[in-house]
Structure formats: C-alpha cells, structure tokens
C-alpha cells in the first residue's frame, strides 16, 4: 500500500504542477494581449481602468497558484507521504478549499474588470450584443466554479481514501 500511496501522491503533485503551468501560460497570454492593447490603443478611462484591474486580477490568480497552491516536487522527498500523512492531508485539504473558493480568487478578479471593459463600450456596441457577451461570461464563470467544485470533491475523496486507509492500518 505504501508504494501505491507514494505513487498516488506523486501523481497528485504532478497534476498540481501541470495545472499551475497551464493556468500561468493562459495568464501570460492575457497579460501580453492586454498590455499590448493598453500600450497601442487609446481607450476611454473606464476601459483603461478595467484593463488595469484585469492585470491586477491576473496577478491575484498567479499569486494564489504559485503562492498557496504550489507544492514543490522536493516536498515528496523531504516529507514522504508514508511518514508525513498529516502534512499531505493538509496539502490536499488546502487544494480542495482553494478550489471551492475559486469564485473569489479566480472568477471575480477577472469578471469585475471584464464588466468594466464591457460597460465602457456602451453606446459603441449594441446593447443586445453586450448582454450576450455578458451572458456568455456568466456561463463561463459558473462553469469554472462548478468544475473547480467537482475537482475539489475528487481531491477530498482521494485524500480520504489514500490517507484514512493508511491511518487504519
């Protein structure tokens, strides 16, 4: 069982790393796009404010990903799951908790600035189009929240299966 625990936790750490890299690449693409747009496009003050807030929101996402949710690979060597079950229980609980609150640190910091950017276009773009874009943004935000809750439940299930089984032994 212990080798299985080690392999499962190593796979978990690798999936966290992959997620953080994937999300970071998306963030850096957005930073480049928004930065380019800010530099080369004269925009109304509300749009500029929204873009600057969007950059700040992206910074929040990156800070959470690499500050709170990052688990260094070295942790597997320094604190093997077989000997440090409580530490890995904490890591997995923290992952789950942050994913359940993705609406707060992931969706809101991007949705609010996006709303300001859309509002800056009122009068330039037909209202029906803005409402359509807003509806799509809400659906995407809701999907992100829902998917993160499902992943959080999976992490909790794995945590309890892997680490509670070991405690009982």
> What is the string of helix and strand elements?
HHHHHH
Rough outline: elongated
* Class inferred from helices and paired strands: mainly alpha
Number of strands: 0
Helix content: over 70%
The rounded Rg comes to 20 Å
**End-to-end distance, in Å?**
10 Å
**Overall pLDDT, averaged?**
93
Major beta sheet summary: none
| Count of discrete alpha- or pi-helical segments spanning 4 or more residues | 6
Describe, in plain words, how this protein is organized in 3D.
- The chain is built from 6 helices and no strands.
- It has 169 residues and is mainly α.
- The N and C termini lie close together (10 Å).
- The protein is 85% helix and 0% strand.
- α1 runs antiparallel to α2, α2 packs antiparallel against α5 and α4 runs antiparallel to α6.
- The mean pLDDT is 93.
- The chain is elongated, with a radius of gyration of 20 Å.
Provide tags for this entry.
6 helices, mainly alpha, elongated, 169 residues, 0% strand
Topology of this structure?
Layout: H1 2-40, H2 45-68, H3 74-78, H4 85-100, H5 102-119, H6 127-168
Helix pairs in contact: 1-2, 2-5, 4-6, 5-6
Can I get a quick summary?
The chain is mainly alpha-helical and about 170 residues long. About 85% of the residues lie in helices and about 0% in strands.
